[in-house]
DNA sequence: CGTGCCGTTGACAGGCGTCAAGTACAGTGG
DNA sequence: CCACTGTACTTGACGCCTGTCAACGGCACG
């Protein structure tokens, strides 16, 4: 519904800054982050919109007892860090060497309207993820994760995971052991092939999607 | 960050229509729904913004195997149904007799910007819920649910649940039996008291919050 | 009073978390 | 060149939590 109004015909995720705002926005240049470096932390003052230029980002929250839930992964072109309230309730970290461009929302309050597609996209992803972690078994979650990663890397059947197992586990609400076992099961069923710890090859795409339900 | 720009000092959830849009919006009058009646269904064309006037709404998706996940409950003042794409991916149903006001987004495209606080609020709730269903045990989820319901009914320590057990279960990613058992455990610990199947009284508010971590 | 729905409780099995051991590999320093 | 170390990942054993199946009670309704 919104795409037809604000961003006709274009994927919401890949809006270049210039297309969205007409190029007259005060944007800082791309800044680079190393693996694990914090982009913003829970409790810090908010007020920026961030976009991944290259690399990847994990956004997570940690419960008082130390359990971590990764809320979302963001890749090239994705906007993140958009929220209500004046303080961040989550933490964003670079995965590998990552380039981030940020915009001050205080200095450019009118750009909120241009960010609506990005916010809706983030919202939609969060809802999608609620189904996965709320109602799917371990192997189904891992299957859904691989399908999502495949789709977000351009629909490739062979790709490398950006993140370690612990990130996958904390994204899916599982432990690293269960993720590992689920991958092994998928491999033994002939649905995927593993090429080293990070390399994934989807052999039976249809079977994988059937598992996602 | 956004509240200070678009809705200074007011709770995002309770923005009256008039305050947000200046009263010059083509809004249909409040329409009434009976218990279980569909407000919109998955697959239908989107293009409306909805607001709960009275009663309550559940928004859910159903997986191919029949498992249901309730994504959110909405109460008086809440906006819902906002999304990208032109077709609904979820279903919204009334819980009990419910009044809904809707606005056509096609006829009032400019109101999107006024809905940003509502979208961010929905997004924030979805993220919050990801933590609950991803990283908390059954009793912690139920505790978090009770705390949420208490907060959303105005911070009352004694309130009635709008929804049956199956809705609570499908919201929390549990079964009705586990929800029931968790409530019994909370009761036996003296943290809550149960007044009939729907009546909840929070006795030890602090202990309940400690469980939510 | 029978029927159906909702909720609770019990018995049991299975999936997943926990704990532990083992492998592969990159980096470091001798 | 190779031992040493730390990290990431896998695999196995075991136990608990929660899902499944079943029985039961309370209540509204016909």
Please outline the major beta sheet of chain A: 6 strands, antiparallel
Going by helix content, strand content and strand pairing, the class of chain A is alpha+beta
Q: What is the radius of gyration of chain A computed over CA atoms, rounded to a whole number of angstroms?
A: 18 Å
CATH architecture of the largest domain in chain A: Sandwich
CATH homologous superfamily caption of the largest domain in chain A: Jelly Rolls
How many strand elements of chain A? 9
Greatest interface and its residue counts? Answer: A-B, 49 and 48 residues
User: Gap between N and C termini of chain A, in Å?
Assistant: 25 Å
Give helix and strand order of chain A, one letter per element, not per position.
HHEEEEEEHHEHHEEH
Q: Please give the oligomerization state of what you see.
A: homodimer
């Amino acid at each position: 519904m919104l795409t037809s109004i604000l961003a006709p015909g274009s994927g919401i995720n890949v809006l270049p800054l210039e297309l969205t705002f007409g190029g007259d926005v005060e944007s800082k240049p791309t800044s680079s982050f190393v693996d694990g470096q914090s982009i913003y932390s829970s409790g810090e003052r908010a007020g920026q919109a961030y976009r991944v230029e290259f690399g990847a980002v994990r956004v997570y929250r940690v419960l008082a007892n130390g359990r971590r839930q990764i809320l979302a992964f963001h890749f090239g072109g994705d906007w993140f860090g958009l929220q209500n309230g004046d303080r961040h309730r989550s933490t964003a970290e670079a995965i590998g060497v990552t380039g981030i461009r940020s915009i001050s929302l205080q200095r450019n309050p009118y750009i909120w309207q241009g960010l609506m597609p990005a916010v809706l996209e983030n919202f939609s992803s969060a809802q999608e993820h609620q189904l996965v972690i709320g109602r799917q078994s371990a192997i189904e979650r891992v299957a859904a994760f691989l399908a999502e990663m495949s789709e977000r890397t351009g629909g490739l059947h062979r790709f490398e995971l950006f993140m370690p197992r612990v990130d996958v586990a904390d994204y899916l609400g599982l432990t690293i052991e269960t993720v590992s076992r689920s991958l092994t099961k998928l491999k033994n069923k002939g649905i995927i092939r593993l090429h080293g710890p990070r390399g994934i090859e989807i052999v039976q795409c249809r079977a994988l999607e059937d598992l996602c339900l």
